[in-house]
Amino acid sequence: MPKVAGKSVSSRIQIIGCILGPTDDARRQMTDIVDSQTRSRMMAGIRGRNTKPELALRHSLHALGLRYRLYVKGVPGKPDIVLPKYHAVIFVHGCFWHRHAGCRYATVPATRPEFWTTKFDANVARDAAVESALLKAGWRVGTVWECALRTDTGIAKTRDIVAAWLHSGDAVLEVGEADVGTAPRPEPDPGSR
Questions:
Q1: Is pLDDT larger for residue 179 or for residue 47?
Q2: How far is 82 from 69, CA to CA, in rounded Å?
Q3: CB 170 within 8 A of CB 126
Q4: Which tens digit of pLDDT belongs to each residue from 164-181?
Q5: How far apart are CA 70 and CA 80, in angstroms?
Q6: How confident is residue 189, by pLDDT bands cut at 50, 70 and 90?
Q7: Which residues pair with 82 in a beta bridge?
Q8: Which one, 51, 104, 140, 171, has least CB within 10 Å?
Q9: 77-130 pLDDT, tens digit each
Q10: Residue 187 to residues 14, 24, 123, 192, Cα–Cα distance (Å)
């Protein structure tokens, strides 16, 4: 049997069977367009730290002279960026994984939508709980969505918005594609001319 991530396929199916229960036999077999080794390699490549959007924001903030710490263990949720001087934290969220409301990147995969919906709901609930815990502890919480950091213009505008927020004293910040003006313009309706 081929090995994937240190487990044979049969042991992974047995483990999945324990998690899903005996009535979910149909869900054990997942149709995929790539083999299991390739899928395992692809999923292992999804990073939780030092992502491209996060690095872009960090470099931009550092260029402004802002100094920060990364993934501080004593702070709830281990925020991506912690600015102790301002008693503020910033999360750089991926629109897909953290369900950016109204974003074109927050899609649901067509295969196993109930699995993905459950997973996404858990992510959103965890994000809300972490934000609540941080606010109760006196931290200011900023959320920067991946879509805001897709262009150099978006990065620069996001940096300016975050810098203004740090000096404002507001408790919460959320920056997305619509806030930085990098959303694609809708095509005019040819019939409206």
A1: 179
A2: 5
A3: no
A4: 999 998 999 999 999 988
A5: 6
A6: low
A7: 69, 89
A8: 104
A9: 999 999 999 999 999 999 998 999 999 999 988 888 899 899 999 999 999 999
A10: 51, 45, 34, 11
Taking alpha carbons only, the member of 163, 161, 135, 119 closest to residue 77 is 135
Cβ contact 123:97 at 8 Å: yes
For residues 16, 21, 23, 29, the Cα torsion angle rounded to the nearest 10 degrees is 0
Given a cut of 60, whether residue 21 has pLDDT beyond it is no
The contacts found for 45-50 with CB under 8 angstroms, 24 or more apart, are: 49/80
User: What's the farthest any 2 CA atoms get from each other in the chain?
Assistant: 63
